[in-house]
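Hi, here's the filled form for the chain we discussed.

Project: internal
Contact: R.S.
Residues: 318
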Amino acid sequence: MLHYLDFEKSIAELEGKIEELRHITGSGEVNIADEVSKLQAKVDKQLRSTYAKLSAWQKTQVARHQDRPHALDYINELIEDFTPLAGDRLFGEDNAVVGGLGRFRGRSVMIMGIEKGSDTEHRVHHNFGMARPEGYRKAQRLMKLADQFGLPIITLVDTPGAFPGADAEARGQAEAIARSMEISFQLKVPFVSVIIGEGGSGGAIALACANTVLMLEHSIYSVISPEGCASILWRDGAEAKTAAEALKLTAKDLLELGVVDAVIPEPLGGAHRDPKSMYMALGAELEHAIYKMDGIDGGQLRARRREKFMELGQKGLA
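And the returned structure, exactly as it came back:
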């Protein structure tokens, strides 16, 4: 069953009518197929109109949609012979960060993702996509392994942020994030990162210091969540909508600011409405991004990655 967001009420009503018609036995007086076709056209028009003018807060809601494809969905669809690798070899395993070896369109790669989980049981298992230090240290281990064997790295980012618990802080959360970033800038292999849902704070950038950073059309990427920003600046979480606008967290904003390199269009109504089309679109963009780095010397890849991030924030300055 499709879950609707607050601003999709009119769409929900139309699609509800379509479902009702599909369960009606046809009679000579009413052509059910024609009525369904007319209503579907209205739904498509309403979706197109609604999603063409989403606010930053509405984009945030879409990015967090419970039916939106997650990291493991993309891995299962796009990666052949995926072999998961676990543990940081220092403390233990963190299920919020998934990763391993596989083949992407005939090419061996190292792929990692931050996994939120698709239902209550899996969300608890993956800690709602909030990684602890061992998750980032596992990512570091896999990055080094990929660098050692000359494998391109793909990361799929979807997290509200790193886990803020006392146990994570005690085990060096900030150091683990900083170290992940440091290792990212030392790599001599192609590195592509995709923001597939939420890209929250240091928990996201720890896996997104890549040569090419892609972003799905209705995903978000920011230094803090709108709710967190509102509680700090206005002392009121109800100001999250205002904070979302101020943070410039949408794909369109970040492309204009030069934070991301390209925006991948989503199916009408968001990735959750047509996951298969989204998998195909993301796969094509990933293949193109990696192909563009073929033949480039490892030292150059590393230098370009460093320069890219050093230049962030310079756009528009004299």
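Let me know if anything looks off before we file it.
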